[in-house]
Amino acid sequence: MKYVSCFLSVCLILMKVSTCNAAEFFGVAPKGSPSIISYGWDGFVLGAMLGTSAGYLKYLDSDKEKDIVLGAAYGSVVGTVGGIALGVMDSSKGKKGYGSIILRDMRLGGQLGLAVGGVIGLASCLSSDDWSDFGRAPAWGYIGGAVVGLGIAFYEGPRLVERQESGSIHPQAIIMADSHSKLFPGIGAVARF
Fold first, then answer.
1. How far, in Å, CA of 127 to CA of 136, rounded?
2. Cα–Cα dist 55/84, whole Å
3. How far apart, in whole angstroms, are the C-alpha atoms of residue 96 and residue 117?
4. Could you state, in order of their start, the residue ranges of all structural domains in the chain?
5. What is the pTM of this model?
6. Distance between terminal CA atoms of the chain?
């Protein structure tokens, strides 16, 4: 079991380091432009974490280490396919949109659930001396947090995307010419439709 945990930890660290180095080598992508590969990576990490959590919960009942690895593998594949599908949906519109919100909220919800589950699991372990809760609570926390994040994305996503797409008026300082061709400052409005 400890070899599986070490292997997964090393893989996650290497993925993060390679992502940081790729940004330095290839340059930072323009703001607001969707990258299908980026969505795929976000889905991969989200799926791997969800799959690892589900695999660990199954491992607690079966004592087979392969359940954790299979959970991570299946979760990674499903997450990658889901991330790419969301990326294709957003890139067809030419900007980050609903898919980005779904991946972001599920990731943040899962991380919050993992942290809260870790604190609850640690408190449970210290009070009962049953250390299986130390892994069980964060696993359930990550899964629950990701589900809550998905619900929040469904709630706030349409509003955020609609706000991006709707026309908005912004004040701006301008210089205009009057009827005698003299320039004077003023306040104008810039609108997008």
1. 15
2. 23
3. 31
4. 2-168
5. 0.68
6. 57
